[in-house]
Amino acid sequence: MLTFKNEVRKSAVHGQGLFTLEPLKAGQILFAFDAQHDKKYTAAEYAKLPEVEQRYIAYWGYQDTMDDCYYLGAGNDRYTNHSTTPSSYVDSEGIVRASHDIPAGGEITCDYTTFDKLTEYKLVGTGARDKLQESIARSSSTATA
Fold this sequence. Notes:
- The structure is a single chain.
- The chain is an alpha+beta fold.
- Helices cover 26% and strands 23% of the residues.
- The chain has one domain: Beta-clip-like, CATH 2.170.270.
- The chain has helices at 43-48, 51-60, 119-123, 128-144; strands spanning 6-10, 16-20, 29-31, 39-41, 62-63, 70-72, 81-82, 88-90, 96-98, 107-110.
- A hairpin with a 5-residue loop joins strand 8 (88-90) and strand 9 (96-98).
């Protein structure tokens, strides 16, 4: 769940983006998983979902590199755009923190490659759907093994 006042608006990075409405300090917690609001799916649970739901979660959520589970935030965090020079990072406990001081009005970005196994699906158009289906198939076979 996001921990700061925010809004979604047009982004210079891509489409819509997540922006802070208040100044944020370096190291400040921006997002932490909250089971009351956010959703976590094990690989086995994800594999049982209809394909349309799997695609939605894969695009708007992420498959964590640490525990292989799929996560879908309940708030505007899904509008956090990718950047190779991000304003946030994921720490060793899976908590998203500000990389540096961010002024009110600043866009929150993150480097998907540091935590999301499905980064390529989000960033590459050609062949991405096939690769996602392969990932789903691998998760299904791992979950049932």
